Amino acid sequence: MTSAAEAENVLQRMINEASPGDVIKVPAGEYSGPIVVDKPLTVQSNGAATIRGSQLDPVITVLSEQVTLDGLKIIHQSPDKDTRAILVEGNHHNLNNLTIRTDGYGIVLRDAHQSRITENTITGNADRPVSERQNGIDLFGSHDNVIANNDIIYVHDGVYMERSEDNKVTQNHVTNSRYGFHLMFTEGTILSQNQSEQNVTGAMVMGTRETSVRDNQFSEQLNHVYAQGLLLYDVQNAEVHHNVINANLVGMLIQDSKENRIYQNHVAANFIGVQLLNAEHNDIFENNFVANVVSGQAQHSAFNRVQGNYWDSHMGLDLDGDDHSEMAFRADPFFYTIVKDKPAFQIFFQAPGMVFMENLLKSDTNLWMTDTAPLIEPVTESEVENRSSSLLFIGFSVLLLLYSFYFIYFGGIRKYET
After folding, report:
1. β partners of residue 182
2. Euclidean distance between CA atoms 170 and 193, whole angstroms
3. What is the C-alpha to C-alpha distance for residues 232 and 236, in angstroms, rounded to an integer?
4. CA angle at 283 for the pair 282 and 284, rounded to the nearest 5°
5. DSSP helix/strand/coil, 139
6. Could you tell me which residue, 71 or 418, shows the higher pLDDT?
7. pLDDT score of 319
């Protein structure tokens, strides 16, 4: 029987002895890391080769150009959350069909460009709290990469990228983590056709320019008082469209962001459909806000171009037959102002005393977020809209009520640890 040490030597020796451009077909069995690939190679398996690592070094380190890793299983066990299953440097790599179980980071790219990270399964340590995990796929200073068709669960952030440009993130699925997708100081990112569910935030987009967020589904971010489907913070010149954002605590939160176009999204069955805070000069049009407990809230966000959205909570009146209401929709900021610092006060939503105070203390409505020509009918129908039945709406409202009781009973709500 081959020992783990012997197997380690065999695999590393195969890599060391290979010529650039060779294809190494790794025999079935278990191998010990760390493994270093420092020349252009293809290292592949039919899924029967496992590489196991428990040291501080990455299980696999790629230090060359044009490396392909395909069909390998990587088991990364470490008490140190800052260790990595795979570290990638250099350009033009392909990491495909990998199965990774990690106690730290999954796949880390550092100054790695024009690579493809596709069809991988990355599983973090479900027994650790979210704050003690690391990211599934982590990019820093890495440009022009494609991250597609990956399945990620039980990590800190599913896909995290910082100071990276022109990356395409598409058709990935992230669940049971903190942020499904986390963009920090990026430019030209395309975030499309992804699914993010049962995380704290579906997608956190912060400090970015010229980001495209389209055709995604952000659902069931509910289990934290600061949960939201999509958060735009300090974002400029983004295109946010054709997303389905349903059954979250807050559907979309747009904060300190300007000059963005937000259109043709379907925002359904959230506690709050859209929140704006210090957001100005954004175009918000042709979105559907359906079966949300609160359609919209805004504070210090009067100077946006909001027009032609459908708000099912708005009693509109179309006098000229143009499918737009002559009565404007206005988002009263009173309730948002109250619960911003005291989230547990959400339990008093539509309570008689709160409604009385709201009417008594109305501020200047000219400063409210206002849709000057709301639609009478939704823009389009979708599967999610069809599923947003009255039963879902009632059940969701009851669930939020129970959450509020829980937070009040156990005394105090602290901000989520980052």
Report:
1. 160, 204
2. 5
3. 9
4. 110
5. strand
6. 71
7. 72
- 148 pLDDT exceeds 70? yes
- pLDDT higher than 70, residue 345: no
The per-type count for the chain, helices as H runs and strands as E runs, is 5, 40
Here the tokens at position 229 are 């489907």
What CA–CA distance (Å, rounded) separates 90 from 370? 50
pTM of the model: 0.84
Q: So what's the pLDDT on residue 6?
A: 53
pLDDT band at 325 (very low <50, low <70, confident <90, very high): confident
**160 pLDDT exceeds 80?**
yes
With contact defined as beta carbons under 8 Å apart, do 96 and 72 qualify? no
Contact 149, 172 (CB under 8 A): yes
Query: 87-96, 145-154, 255-264, 398-407: which range is least confident on average?
Result: 398-407
Q: Which of 258, 261, 200 is nearest to 225 (CA)?
A: 200
What the block records as the tokens of 132 is 């003690």
- What is the maximum alpha-carbon separation in the chain? 85
Q: Hey, what amino acid is at 360?
A: L
Looking at residue 2, the DSSP 8-state letter turns out to be -
Cβ count within 10 A of residue 202: 31
* Sequence letter at residue 186: T
258 DSSP 8-state letter? B
Dihedral (Cα; 361, 364, 370, 374), 10-degree rounding: 70
Say which residue, 55 or 266, is predicted with more confidence: 266
Q: What is the pLDDT of residue 125?
A: 96
How would you classify the pairing of strands 42-44 and 68-70? parallel
What share of residues in the chain are helix, strand, coil (percent, to 5)?
Answer: 15, 40, 45
Place of tokens 């195969």: 14
Chain position carrying tokens 């619960």:
339
Report the 10 Å Cβ neighbour count for 350.
10
